[in-house]
Amino acid sequence: MFFIISKILAFLIKPTFWILGLLIFSIFKKNKRKYYIIITTLLYIFFTNEFIYNEAARCWEEPSKDIKILDEKYDIGIVLGGFSDFDSITQKHNFKKEADRFIYTFQLYNRGIIKKILISGGNGRLSKSNFKEAETIQKFLINNSVNKKDIIIESESRNTKENAFYSAQIIKEDSKVILITSATHMKRALLCFKRAGVQVTAFPVDNMLSYRSIDPSHILLPKARVLEYWEELIHEIIGYLVYYIYL
Known about the structure:
Blueprint: H1 2-12, H2 15-28, H3 33-47, H4 50-60, E1 74-80, E2 84-87, E3 92-95, H5 100-110, E4 114-120, H6 133-143, E5 151-154, H7 160-168, E6 177-182, H8 183-195, E7 201-205, H9 216-220, H10 225-246
Parallel strand pairs: 1-4, 1-6, 4-5, 6-7
Antiparallel strand pairs: 2-3
Helix pairs in contact: 2-3, 4-10, 7-8, 8-10
């Protein structure tokens, strides 16, 4: 039930839902149509402004870490799913913008910083599917020269809470663990792993750029893709609050 409710909530908190809702509402409120259209326009300008989003994301993200400064070795590197899909017809992986999770995990392994890779991710869709992200990524790693003995998979989780609690059942208590996930997702992930009783070192990836662009097009022009970024950031903030209260 919690999983289904979380999916419904994820839809309701989307800025695109708010904007569309206000537009539809304005159709039925003829006497206040101008008022609702102004609000809708302001919301659109705000949520499509990349500069505003970047500043908000910087406040929420966990700070970036350079692989070069990691002087410790870890027994396990946990990489959280949600960074790929698999096309069963073409037999190819489609990596998403969160692919930094996978890329840096691969680097940490190749540099000998982590001994084993734990891929945590099943299928987060509401509809039934045989797709298990951890299983497909395991095959990808093996095909790219990673020793099968160094890969652990957790393929039952559907969300961050389950990532943590199912991984906790696999990890030995004395293991040194590093957690690899997107910087905007790290706060929620750390909370879940703490509540699951797993002590981890955070290795956030996919951070905002360290510099601020002053290009006029970046500051002034609306960009549709920023709506999607906001949806993810709001999802993380709300998700963190919900998990903090109920976990």
